[in-house]
Amino acid sequence: MNLIRRCFAEVLGTYLLVLLGCGVVHTAVLTGSQSGLWQVAVVWGLAVMLAIYVTGATSGAHINPAITLAFAARGRFAWRLVLPYILSQVAGAFLAAATLFVLFAPLLAAKEEAKHVRRGQPGSEVTAMCYGEYFPSPGPLAGPTEAYSEAAHHRLNETVSEPTAFGAEFLGTAILALVVFAVTDPGNIAGRAQRLAPAIIGLTISALISFIAPLTQACFNPARDFGPRLFACFAGWGPIALPGPRGLGFLTVYILAPVAGALVGAHVYDLLLRPSVAAAEQQTL
Fold first, then answer.
1. Crossing angle for the helix pair 2-31 and 222-232, nearest 10 degrees?
2. CA torsion angle for 268, 17, 27, 230 (degrees, to 10)?
3. Could you tell me the mean pLDDT of each successive run of 10 residues in the chain, 285 residues long?
4. 162-183 and 257-267 are packed helices; what angle lies between their axes, rounded to 10 degrees?
5. Of 47, 70, 112, 132, which cross-links 262 as Cys (Cβ 3.0–4.6 Å)?
6. What is the set of domains in the chain, with CATH numbers?
């Protein structure tokens, strides 16, 4: 029962994260109701904060396979729980995507009609981006007036290569893991205000989104990308959603890069910074 309760908390936490986070992406892309990137970033940060507050006491609120793997790699989480946690996180993200699809179906169809694109065909990234992620962000193609242009899309794709996108996701997730490990470390004097940890982590997400989103839509979380991407594949976007128009780029950029980044960030804190934190704690005793 304890494992079921913890897995349910991970489903619920990831559901809240994706429902609010991808929800604001829907409103920005489909209605233009967000005036800038910062508004979207703040909602994502609030979504992370709320999900942690709601589920942290039950499951630890990993809500991210990369963070789960990082905790396990550093001996702070049991390896036997890794797979149940990751499956729960993907399930929560999938369910949130399904909820958003039901709510926004007419607006999705209207955007595709306005852009003269067919769902599942090239160009339908302008709506698929509400679920899975793409590099660079197709946001500039989803404006309210002009029709979709294949030439403009080609020029946009040339601005961000797969290695660049991998590096952006790796860096963003490494910073996120570094902050998570720092603010959840009971030996860190500066991070002892544990009740503020969810807010600090949420603000870190907002800051990272603010400069990485134009490059990759700022994932940092394999469940956040794969769950909605998988749903979009079944919901009519097909190969535009999975694997996507850039082949296995979704695997390297949105799954492998966040996992590698989280592992590096966790090891940097524990191996390079944590000994200093422990020494400072001893000096105060």
1. 70
2. 90
3. 94 98 97 90 97 96 98 96 98 98 98 95 96 95 85 94 98 98 84 79 97 97 98 97 94 98 97 74 48
4. 40
5. 70
6. 2-284 (1.20.1080.10)
